Amino acid sequence: MRQLVPSFRPFCAPGAAAILAAILILGGCDPSVSVLNPSDQYRFSLFGTLNVAADTQVIRVDPLGDTSRVGSQKALAATVRLENVETGTQVTLADSFETIGEGSARFHNLKTTHPIRPDTRYRVSVRVEGTPVTTATTTTPARPPTLRHEPTSTDDKPFLLPCLTRDRELVESANTFTLRASAVESLAAVQVLYPIEGAFSLVDHYNDAEYRETDDLYRISVYYGADIRVGTPGGDRCTFRSQFVRPHARVAVTAGGPDWPDWRGVSINDIARPDTFTNVEGGHGFVGGVYSDTIQIPIRQRE
Q: Where is the composition biased (Low complexity) (predicted)?
């Protein structure tokens, strides 16, 4: 098992945990911006997504300048607004000072339940004394991804249990299911939830999606044998079907908007650079529009 989660919510952005780690390790901001050499040009970093399918939007906002500490100070000393650029409607996000992951560092996660519309341009602005000092503008996708898993009528591979082993090792080709995602302008995230008793396992499969230009779709291959592997003295096996609290896996696929970058194949050092993929003015980071959907992949009995 890779990550235990109490419930399934589509991820905000691909590789966010790795990106955050790199930013914290490598500084995540222009080296000219420091405690000893502050800059009015870069005031805040912004990271997050605006997901049309989500009930709550979360944007992480960090003041730039103090590179001597990990995490944020409790006082943000700013307000954050979300604006529909097309209608002019604005809402103020609520600040939540939270711990991320298993560490002790705390950050400002700004949240709102304001509905996000498809094919719409939004702007997130950080304001100090009423003046916008850092902004990010993005456009949401026009529609969610279309997801299909039809192993009886296509070449999609089913989710078969028990897993097949050979010489006490799992056979990848025999323990992989596939699905297709179309109507995707840019792929932002792929996650699989295995509802296993006592330990819901959520696994990232973003790098397992292959774009097929002739069909204009992504074929996603999920090596579930590795995801639910159980090592025993007699060799590897998979979690038993009886341990699933529901007879299926759930796959969440998230499409990025027209300005979503292609993260795949980019080194973590490049991702951590302040000028990589940024759409933030007056700061660093990235805020992107996304639209997610989910599909159930039923467990089938291996014959």
A: 131-141
Band of pLDDT at residue 64, cut at 50, 70 and 90: confident
| pTM score over 0.90 | no
Question: Per the structure block, which two tokens stand in for 90?
Answer: 């604005």
Q: What is the largest CA-CA distance in the chain?
A: 68
Paired residues of 109 in beta bridges:
60, 96
3-class SS of residue 271: helix
Closest listed residue to residue 262, CA positions, set 276, 246, 280, 282: 276
In this prediction, residue 38 carries a pLDDT of 43
Fold of 146-256+294-301: Immunoglobulin-like (2.60.40)
Residue 127: strand pairing partners = 79, 132
Indicate where the chain has its CATH 2.60.40 domain(s). 146-256+294-301
Cβ-contact 223, 214 below 8 angstroms = no
- Helices (DSSP H) in the chain: which residue ranges? 16-26, 224-227, 268-272
Contact at 8 Å (CB) between 49 and 299? no
If you write DSSP's letter for every residue of 76-101 in order, what string do you get?
--SEEEEEETTT--EEEPEEEEEE-T
pLDDT 10s digits, 195-223: 998 877 789 999 999 999 999 999 999 99
Task: Give the pair of three-digit tokens for residue 1.
Answer: 């098992």
Phi first, then psi: give them for residue 227, nearest 5 degrees. Answer: -65, -40
Q: How far apart are CA 219 and CA 292, in angstroms?
A: 16
Two structure tokens written together for 110: 């700004």
